[in-house]
Amino acid sequence: NSPSFSAFYAEYSTGNYLLLHDDKLTRRRFGYIIYLVDQKWDAETSGGQLDLFDENCLNVEVSLTPKRGCLVVFEVCRDSWHQVREVLDEKLVRKSITGWFLGETEWIDG
Questions:
Q1: 93, 15 in Cβ contact below 8 A?
Q2: 44 to each of 40, 51, 66, 99, how far by Cα in Å?
Q3: Are 11 and 47 in contact (CB under 8 A)?
Q4: Are 88 and 44 a contacting pair, CB within 8 Å?
Q5: Beta bridge pairs of residue 100
Q6: Which 3 state secondary structure label does DSSP give 38?
Q7: Are 23 and 32 in contact (CB under 8 A)?
Q8: Where does the chain have alpha helices with state H?
Q9: What is the distance between the alpha carbons of residues 84 and 102, in angstroms, rounded to a whole number?
Q10: pTM: predicted TM-score of the whole model, two decimal places
Q11: What is the predicted pLDDT for the residue at 46?
Q12: pLDDT at position 2, please?
């Protein structure tokens, strides 16, 4: 039996970002992020927000600022477009454990 989730550690330093994308791969049902950022992380000066886009990838519907100890979970579906904004802070690193809860993805596989 394969595990029901995957996990990896990620760091984004000054200037790092992740372009607009989706996570649509076989067995990925829900994406998650557990933030391990410093308590001093600030939306305006640190950057690194997770932006969730509308189905047309034109507008940010939700923008989430990393906060230490917070868990973010979102469904991986046909329109789950997202990005990580550029990290602006020169002293802090955007640290997280991230991955996917795995399950049936017939809508992708079929």
A1: no
A2: 12, 14, 11, 26
A3: no
A4: no
A5: 6, 31
A6: coil
A7: no
A8: 43-46, 106-109
A9: 22
A10: 0.91
A11: 98
A12: 67
